[in-house]
Amino acid sequence: MPIEGDTAPDFTLPSTSGGTITLSALRPAPVVVFFYPKDDTPGCTTENKDFTALSQDFQQAGARVLGISKDTIAKHEKFRTKHELATELLSDADTTVCEDWGVFKEKNMYGKTYMGIERATFLIDATGTVVRAWPKVKVAGHAEEVLEAVKAL
């Protein structure tokens, strides 16, 4: 998992905005990349709604916000429509990017072990450097904390 001071691993993924998004092509704008386990689950829905509620503030600060899960673009579109989300969502269906970023991990629920995405957020500056990393994110208040970090750049 990248830590503060590391160069953010580059990626190109399909996006709900149409076409693909390449992380390095977004420079010099700061970028918030948040990884989440699955569309339409309680924590993931709340996290996406929280980032959506602050989307104008992120735009005013000059930052792009990208949410990544392994759900398909079609599923992302249904999720966005159902919850009126403004969040730009990217599909990492084969989990290659999640693995590159170290967020595809062994998880345990009800005694069952499986591989899944660990909720994590990264703030990348104009040079492509990770300036803040939030592993094992707790959703409550997280989007606000990330916005404050963006404003501090």
Name some characteristics of this structure.
153 residues, alpha/beta, Glutaredoxin, five-stranded mixed β-sheet, two-stranded antiparallel ribbon, 5 helices, 29% helix, globular
In short:
This protein has 153 residues and is an alpha/beta fold.
Detailed description of the structure:
The chain has 153 residues and is of the alpha/beta class. The protein has a single domain (29-151), classed as Glutaredoxin. 29% of the residues lie in helices and 28% in strands. The strands form 3 sheets. It has a 5-stranded mixed beta sheet with strand order 5-4-3-8-9. Strand 8 and strand 9 form a beta hairpin.
Write the CATH homologous superfamily: Glutaredoxin
Mean pLDDT over all positions: 96
Write the element-wise H/E pattern from the N-terminal end onward.
Answer: EEEHHEHEHEEEEH
CATH architecture: 3-Layer(aba) Sandwich
**Shape summary:** globular
Low-confidence stretches: none
What percent of the residues sit in helical stretches (DSSP H or I)? Answer: 25-40%
Tell how many strands the DSSP assignment holds.
9
Indicate how many domains the architecture comprises. Answer: 1
Helix/strand-derived category reads: alpha/beta
Helices and strands, with pairings:
Blueprint: E1 12-14, E2 20-22, E3 31-35, H1 42-53, H2 55-60, E4 64-69, H3 73-83, E5 88-91, H4 96-100, E6 104-109, E7 112-117, E8 120-124, E9 130-134, H5 142-151
Parallel strand pairs: 3-4, 4-5
Antiparallel strand pairs: 1-2, 3-8, 6-7, 8-9
